Amino acid sequence: MTGLTKKIENYLDELFPNARCELNYTKDYELLLATMLSAQTTDKRVNMVTSILFKKYPSLEALSKAKPKAIEEIIKPIGTYHKKALNVIEIAKRLVEEKGSKVPNDRKYLESLPGVGRKTTNVVLSNLYNEPCIAVDTHVSRVSKRLGLANNQDDPLEIEKKLTKIFSKNHLGKIHHQLVLFGRYHCLARNPNCENCKLKNICEYQKTKL
Asked: Where does [4Fe-4S] cluster bind (predicted)?
């Protein structure tokens, strides 16, 4: 798998040498909340609403005291806003009361927060604490299966385990962002840009088109 892995890494480095999270944040809790809000929507939409949300409520304390309806009005464009508004307030309250307004490097605690699952936790731990985590979203899942790094029936956790074994521990954070961007801008769900892709000769999806 080493030669294949190196080929994938080299191409991703060529396309995205400075890959980073496309969610905008300036504080630790902003990344946590933005990632939670990004479920079933796009980073672009999340950035639109959080630019308003974090300006109106500039601290966790302010968010913890916000009215659900007021949060809903701001985050309405991202969908499932009733639940997400409650999640924002509850997460803010718990971080203020239990963690001194800090996002801890604690997987178990983070996954206990409403609306925060393994994927969100991996994004937070990787970006805030440089923990060797890889978050599997729809883009990472699709690309991994097409490149033969995972099987079609694999769930996100299984894909995460396989990618963690395949790629160097020190590169997981970067690889995560690169795979997301590759899936978002090149290896699209529909009409992927196969013609110009340097990985098409190892792509399982490409083989089905021949």
From this structure: 187, 194, 197, 203
